[in-house]
Write a structure and sequence with these properties.
With 212 residues, the protein is an alpha/beta fold. The chain is 20% helix and 33% strand.
């Protein structure tokens, strides 16, 4: 089929054309497809990490094609590169149960919280991080917004307006050699209640051994 490249297609013979080089846009496109596939449960966190690393270092289009060969095709309505990728997640709750994102959840580029009197917990301990920045637009009244961090994650609350609310920030023990893997920027308004930023709680074994 014209315009398509098979993952197994190789140049052969003296008259064959060289494989086309991959551009930054091509690599970004594949990374987005992989991220969405992980969010749909098609890839494990380990597989996502391996394939994203391979995509970012891919030299040719066939190298990229091989990384998505076993995934469902992107919708034909996708159009331009990245048009179908949803980078924004919106959570709306009013007087309902707690909102939790824990375990192996995929961190989007932007998260909108429109929440009234519901506790919200965003646990980044085992989260799958594919971007370097997460913007959280906060429109939250009452209860507590809790962010559980790990080394390499920086929480910025300077852009958050507090109305009868406060921020409690317990810093994760610093590792001088740990690079910043994710910067979380909170903007908007938190009215009543509080914002808690803390490291993961220690297990019983860690507590008995005096480990952080």
């Amino acid at each position: 089929m014209s315009g398509e490249i098979s993952p197994t297609e190789k140049s052969s013979g003296p008259g064959s054309s060289p494989e086309l080089r991959a551009s930054h846009a091509n690599r970004d496109r594949v990374v987005d497809i992989l991220r969405v596939a992980a969010g749909d449960g098609l890839l494990t966190a380990e597989e996502l990490d391996e394939r994203v690393e391979a995509a970012l270092s891919a030299r040719t289009l066939s190298d990229l094609t091989a990384l998505t060969a076993d995934l469902p095709p992107v919708s034909a309505t996708a159009g331009a590169i990245g048009a179908e990728v949803k980078d924004t997640v919106r959570i709306e709750r009013v007087f309902s149960g707690a909102v939790e994102r824990v375990g192996r959840w995929v961190v989007p580029r932007r998260l909108e919280l429109a929440v009234t009197y519901c506790d919200v917990t965003l646990d980044f301990t085992d989260a799958v991080i594919t971007h370097d920045t997460l913007r959280i637009d906060v429109a939250m009244a009452g209860k507590t917004l809790t962010l559980v961090t790990r080394p390499g994650i920086v929480i910025d609350t300077d852009g958050l307006q507090l109305v009868h609310s406060r921020v409690k920030h317990r810093h994760t023990p610093a590792d001088p050699g740990a690079p910043v893997t994710l910067r979380v920027e909170l903007v908007g308004q938190k009215a009543h209640g509080r914002v808690v930023v803390r490291p993961p709680r220690r297990t019983l074994g860690q507590w008995l051994l005096g480990k952080p």
